[in-house]
């Protein structure tokens, strides 16, 4: 029996509630309704008085979670969509992120952010916010790309004493399945080699890992072996694994679904050119979604974001250099 990415997130929350009485869930319509994507379905029945519906105020939601964390709780807050977290931006970056540094009191909250695009979701329900939050010290930014990581990294996030922004990709909820949840293998902050190679490196995260793997399969037909690095978390970022991969291949494509300006892909290239310029045999490239609001129409959305075809084309350009 297989388990989906979404089911893994639900199971992780179940396990967190079961194993730690200080954990509770908070979010809009998450109790009786089970949340916008049913990530908390039946959990309020299993754990009465520990799964709470919140007001429609992201600012109030995060503020309450910070206060609860100060008193020793470990809240998991569900944003209906990552886009809406901007309403709670002040609480996240000015309160949660700085609390320990101001007061020596930890702030162990986990903010689940359904991130990224799906066909027909449009500009208000498709954004990838990870680079915005990664800009601020004090926050941990997690971007799981596999069913196993969705489960284990959520449990790890709850155990961390820092506030964690958990960017779970909506497109993977039902599209990604695994036969089972394996054992915990890597900690947060450690990247994994999703596919070994020797001609070029793709560094990416979240749903783009799967587009990158498909592009690598396509390039293999031309005799190229493309290495794919799954960051797993963008802050902390595993620079050592990135540099080791570039040392093997000599070429770098930084890939992300988010907007290009000042994003994670820019940070990857900055680190490689600063710390590993001598490893490069070609100028590094990056590929992101277009620098425009995300379109509603499914065909426009497909043209807006990186796809297997556009990644393969970028790789061919990189390999020709």
Automatic annotation (TrEMBL):
EC number: 1.2.4.1, 1.2.4.4
Pfam annotation, one family: Transket_pyr
CDD domains linked: TPP_PYR_E1-PDHc-beta_like
Top-rank taxon: Bacteria
GO molecular function terms listed in the Swiss-Prot or TrEMBL record: branched-chain 2-oxo acid dehydrogenase activity; pyruvate dehydrogenase (acetyl-transferring) activity
Coiled coil: none
Keywords tagged on the record: Oxidoreductase, Pyruvate, Thiamine pyrophosphate
Span of domain Transketolase-like pyrimidine-binding: 3-175
Cofactor(s) needed for function: thiamine diphosphate
Name of the protein: Pyruvate dehydrogenase E1 component beta subunit/2-oxoisovalerate dehydrogenase E1 component beta subunit
